[in-house]
Design a protein that fits this description.
Blueprint: H1 3-41, H2 43-63, H3 67-97, H4 100-106, H5 108-114, H6 116-142
Helix pairs in contact: 3-6, 4-5
Length: 144
């Protein structure tokens, strides 16, 4: 056998013997570090997200009483959906009828950068759709 193999086997046996012995100590230290990080680092971030959620709920409660505003939110979500598919069809047309596919072959990242409008419209649609669904759910709580 090679010397490196023997050293590897010995070190593996020693580590597999020592690791279970010191594992409770390591677990305690990881728990202490995790508690410290959770208590001291994430509280300001948690407050920011809670305030944002509170403002969203306030806006939903105001808007849910107005049936025209609820309908407008639903229609805008559908409009974003149609715009998203329109952009997809536009890019499919570019891939089929123009030299846009060659751009992907020569410089993939530039092609992806030029395709970001697809992702922007998808994000806008998903956000509007989520907002409309939340508004409809809040409207249902009114019992109207």
């Amino acid at each position: 056998m090679d010397n490196n193999t023997i050293i590897g086997l010995i070190l593996g046996a020693v580590i597999s013997y020592i690791l279970p012995k010191i594992s409770p100590y390591i677990d305690r230290q990881i728990k202490k570090i995790g508690d410290f990080v959770r208590d001291n680092c994430f509280d300001p971030i948690k407050g920011f997200f809670r305030k944002r959620r509170l403002n969203k709920l306030k806006q939903l409660r105001i808007t849910r009483k107005n049936s025209a505003a609820v309908t407008l939110k639903i229609v805008s979500a559908h409009t974003y959906f149609l715009l998203f598919w329109g952009v997809i069809f536009f890019y499919v047309h570019l891939l089929i009828d123009t030299d846009y596919a060659k751009l992907f072959e020569t410089n993939f990242w530039l092609g992806m950068l030029l395709a970001t409008p697809i992702y922007c419209f998808e994000f806008a649609w998903l956000r509007a759709d989520s907002n409309a669904k939340d508004l409809v759910k809040q409207r249902g709580r009114l019992g109207l």
